């Protein structure tokens, strides 16, 4: 069973953002996460074709959660909603270029812990050719 | 399914009438498939959505389905359903408890006793302690969608067999 979680974290870490992203992790971190934060979660990994006990294709689904607070960007007060949307756009472009992921969800989620934090979800599907390590839609 | 038609005006008229009937049947089949798929999705979602007893008596939401101009939609509504689906999210800087969470890694959701201090759990994949303010996403909608996708070819085949065989 193959997963792209680690690779996605690397891609997102190597991506250039106009805002300094302080936390990028696989799953919720052990240490105190700093905002803006990007959390990658693999929520599904289904085998779609197996031949002679070898998994040929699998369908993977990823949640990318983005958290941000209101902040100064180039000394301009910027709302947390604007921050998450800018980051979401860059993440989307980056993951599309790298893996051709299909975006299923892009939405602000409720977050009742702190109203100055905006929580945004991107959800993606992709088919992985396990043998040739090629992704496609 | 096969049909023998004699060449000629009569045969072509017969064929056109036959095709018109098939067209009418297909419209009915599409409607039936959409409705049965929605029924299956709603039933699956109802089974996957938590019962209120599992979440401290919090309202676990209602599942229904409606006909719309574009087909059918399955609806999961309730005050807390977004948290049930997506979880309540992580706690970041400024919200994190000061205590050493690793000492509390054996905590589990304490059914309302944690107040504003959040709770710790062990990540089922890594085995590492994590901290959250609330529940992990149960994803009943996502899981119901996945099951409905798998069921769709079976529904389509059954409805087509019933109508044309």
Describe this structure as you would to a colleague.
The complex is a heterodimer of chains A (137) and B (165). Helix content of chain A is 22%, strand content 47%. Chain A has 137 residues and is of the alpha+beta class. In chain A, strands 1, 2, 3, 6, 7 and 8 form a six-stranded mixed β-sheet that branches. The mean pLDDT of chain A is 90. Chain B is α+β, with helices and mostly antiparallel strands. Chain B is built from three helices and four strands. Chain B has helices at 9-48, 81-86, 140-164; strands at residues 62-68, 71-77, 119-122, 129-132. In chain B, helix 1 (9-48) packs antiparallel against helix 3. Chain B is elongated, with a radius of gyration of 26 Å. The chains are: A alpha+beta (137), B alpha+beta (165).
Task: Describe the structure concisely.
The complex is a heterodimer of chains A (137) and B (165). Chain A has helices at residues 5-14, 80-99, and strands spanning 23-26, 37-51, 54-69, 71-73, 76-78, 102-109, 117-129, 134-136.
How do the strands of the widest beta sheet of chain B line up side by side?
1-2
- Largest interface, by Cβ-Cβ below 8 angstroms: which chains and how many residues each? A-B, 27 and 27 residues
Note the beta-strand portion of chain B: 5-15%
C-alpha termini separation of chain A: 19 Å
In CATH terms, the superfamily of chain A is Phage minor tail protein U
What gyration radius of chain A follows from the Cα positions, in whole Å? Answer: 16 Å
Report low-confidence residues of chain A grouped into runs of 5 or more: none
CATH architecture of chain A: 2-Layer Sandwich
The CATH topology name of chain A reads Alpha-Beta Plaits
Query: What kind of oligomer do you see?
Result: heterodimer
Relative strand content of chain A:
over 45%
Secondary-structure-based class of chain B equals alpha+beta
Q: How many structural domains of chain B?
A: 2
* Helix-and-strand structural type of chain A: alpha+beta
Distance from N terminus to C terminus of chain B (CA atoms, Å) equals: 8 Å
Helix content of chain B: 40-55%
Shape of chain B: elongated
H-E order of chain B: HEEHEEH
Q: What value does the Rg of chain B take, in angstroms?
A: 26 Å
Mean pLDDT of chain B: 79
Estimate the helix proportion of chain A, in percent. 10-25%
């Amino acid at each position: 069973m193959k997963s792209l979680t680690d690779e996605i974290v690397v891609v997102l870490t190597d991506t250039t953002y106009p805002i300094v992203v302080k936390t990028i992790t696989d799953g919720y971190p052990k240490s105190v996460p700093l905002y803006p934060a990007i959390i990658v979660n693999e929520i599904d990994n289904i085998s779609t074709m197996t031949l002679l006990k070898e998994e040929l294709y699998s369908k993977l689904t990823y949640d990318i959660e983005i958290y941000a607070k209101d902040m100064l960007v180039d000394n301009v007060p910027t709302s947390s909603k604007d921050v998450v949307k800018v980051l979401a756009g860059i993440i989307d472009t980056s993951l599309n270029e790298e893996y051709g992921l299909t975006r299923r969800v892009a939405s602000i989620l409720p977050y009742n812990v702190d109203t100055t934090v905006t929580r945004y979800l991107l959800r993606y599907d992709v088919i992985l050719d396990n043998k040739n390590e090629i992704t496609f839609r | 399914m096969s049909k023998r038609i004699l060449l000629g005006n009569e045969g072509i008229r017969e064929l056109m009438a036959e095709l018109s009937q098939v067209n009418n049947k297909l419209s009915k089949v599409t409607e039936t498939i959409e409705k049965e798929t929605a029924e299956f999705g709603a039933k699956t979602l109802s089974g996957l959505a938590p019962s209120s007893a599992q979440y401290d008596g919090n309202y676990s939401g209602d599942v229904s389905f409606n006909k719309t101009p574009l087909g059918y939609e399955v609806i999961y509504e309730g005050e807390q359903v977004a948290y049930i689906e997506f979880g309540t999210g992580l706690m970041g800087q400024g919200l994190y408890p000061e205590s050493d969470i690793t000492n509390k890694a054996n905590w589990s959701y304490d059914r309302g006793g944690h107040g504003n201090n959040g709770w710790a759990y062990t990540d089922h994949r890594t085995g590492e302690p994590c901290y959250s303010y609330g529940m992990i996403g149960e994803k009943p909608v996502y899981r119901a969608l996945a099951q409905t996708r798998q069921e769709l070819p079976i529904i389509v085949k059954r409805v087509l067999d019933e109508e044309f065989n």
